[in-house]
């Protein structure tokens, strides 16, 4: 089969191009992360007639970034040559920070936001110490359980004294 | 219950019942969000401003999903905005506890403690609903209201077991809100029909676990459960308290003056 371009190969290329365009869309509130890093992008499918369907899921029910993400996905696919794009919102299964990629967590840390730690399971809920994303110190404390966006809480480092955001485990 | 059996039962319900049930849950969330939003720029400290705004935003998100679904099932072309902005007071079916005025911070926290404790129990069970949309909304919302309940609990402990003044005001907040607690656990014929179809959660089954949670928090906070001398009810039938008209006037003013206005 090598050397022949089949319809299936074309479909795969087209699908890959559509997926790459959608996956590269940055989150409007945490622009170092793409919607793929966040786990917000669930599916991209290309129909036989070339129409693209993108499925996204919100982080929190009230996340105000969803409308912006919807528009950004349309624009990104438009630039990649896809004119007919529909974006669907799904709620199930419910988004969790477990879907955030390891690369995404590292990007967050470098950006100055402490990434979510995997939720501790077991009979006793265990709170893990957060490392300061600025100086790496483990001596940190929570200032506020709520932060600048629905997905973050506010912390401060006892050593370097810098306040920092924590992307909450959810 | 198997998925097939659930689907079969779900298929037998009346669409109007499902619309009404989604509106009850959606109106609770919408009116709760509107009241909490009144604290923005007026909370006792900046962090609390952010906290109450974030809780309101979660509730608003839940309301949008529930009202959109109600409009979709109704099938008459009404969307979430039509339902939020263009219904009159008697068409809102939230429980009255969500609309009672904020009062001081103690009363707001008392209301949030009770409503979030109730919503945790509700959404936990509704996540197993035979209706896939309600189940999905509930599965998402339960993680959010659990966090709200934690927040209200930590304040109840600090205020109740704090100074003489904070204790007095937290206790008074509970006294103010308590006559509206019973309504949350009322069932009616609509509920019976939807419970039979495995779509709805019977509010009566939520009373025991909700009260057990509240009892434990109040005891630890050195607060007393108030005596319910009167019991208010009627929200599910569109009967509301004096504060509701003012709340809706603020919520709906812009949309009614400038229909279709967008950002």
Describe the structure.
The complex is a heterodimer of chains A (170) and B (263). Chain A contains four helices and seven strands; from the N terminus they run ααββαβαββββ. Chain A is an alpha/beta fold. Chain A folds into two domains: 7-95, GMP Synthetase, Chain A, domain 3 (2-Layer Sandwich), CATH 3.30.300; 100-167, no CATH class. Chain A starts with 6 loop residues before the first helix and ends with a strand. The mean pLDDT of chain A is 89. Chain B is mostly helical. In chain B, 65% of the residues lie in helices and 0% in strands. Chain B has a single domain, classed as Ferritin, core subunit, four-helix bundle (Ferritin, Up-down Bundle).
Quick summary of this structure?
The complex is a heterodimer of chains A (170) and B (263). Chain A has 170 residues and is an alpha/beta fold. Chain A has helices at 7-23, 35-38, 65-79, 102-111; strands at residues 41-46, 52-56, 85-89, 113-114, 140-144, 152-157, 163-167.
């Amino acid at each position: 089969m090598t050397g022949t371009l089949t319809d299936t190969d074309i479909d795969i290329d087209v699908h890959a191009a559509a997926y790459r365009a959608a996956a590269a869309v940055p989150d409007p509130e945490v622009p170092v992360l793409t919607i793929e890093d966040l786990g917000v992008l669930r599916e991209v499918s290309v129909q036989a007639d070339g129409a693209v369907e993108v499925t996204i899921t919100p982080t929190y029910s009230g996340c105000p970034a969803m409308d912006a993400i919807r528009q950004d996905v349309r624009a990104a696919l438009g630039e990649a040559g896809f004119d007919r794009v529909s974006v669907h919102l799904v709620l199930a299964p419910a988004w969790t920070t477990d879907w955030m990629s390891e690369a995404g967590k590292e990007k967050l840390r470098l950006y100055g936001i402490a990434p979510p730690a995997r939720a501790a399971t077991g009979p006793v809920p265990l709170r893990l110490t957060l490392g300061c994303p600025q100086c790496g110190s483990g001596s940190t404390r929570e200032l506020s359980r709520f932060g600048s966006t629905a997905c973050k809480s506010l912390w401060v480092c006892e050593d370097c004294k810098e306040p920092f955001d924590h992307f909450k485990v959810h | 219950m198997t998925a097939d059996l659930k689907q079969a039962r779900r298929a037998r319900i009346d669409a109007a019942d499902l619309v009404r049930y989604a509106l009850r849950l959606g109106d609770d969330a919408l009116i709760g969000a509107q009241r909490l939003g009144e604290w923005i720029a007026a909370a006792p400290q900046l962090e609390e401003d952010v906290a109450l705004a974030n809780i309101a935003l979660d509730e608003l998100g839940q309301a949008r999903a529930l009202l959109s679904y109600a409009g979709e099932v109704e099938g008459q072309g009404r969307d979430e905005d039509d339902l939020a902005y263009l219904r009159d007071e008697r068409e809102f079916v939230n429980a009255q506890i969500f609309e009672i005025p904020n009062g001081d911070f103690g009363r707001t926290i008392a209301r949030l403690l009770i409503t979030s404790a109730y919503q945790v129990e509700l959404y936990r069970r509704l996540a197993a609903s035979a209706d896939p949309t309600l189940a999905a909304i509930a599965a998402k919302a339960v993680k959010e209201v659990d966090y709200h309940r934690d927040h209200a609990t930590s304040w109840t402990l600090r205020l109740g077991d704090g100074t003489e003044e904070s204790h007095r005001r937290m206790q008074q907040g509970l006294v103010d809100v308590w006559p509206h607690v019973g309504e949350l656990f009322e069932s009616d014929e609509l509920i019976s029909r939807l419970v039979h179809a495995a779509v709805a959660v019977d509010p009566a089954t939520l009373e025991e676990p909700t009260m057990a949670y509240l009892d434990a928090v109040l005891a630890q906070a050195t607060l007393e459960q108030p005596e319910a001398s009167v019991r208010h009810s009627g929200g599910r039938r569109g009967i509301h308290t004096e504060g509701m008209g003012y709340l809706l006037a603020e919520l709906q003013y812009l949309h009614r003056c400038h229909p279709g206005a967008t950002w």
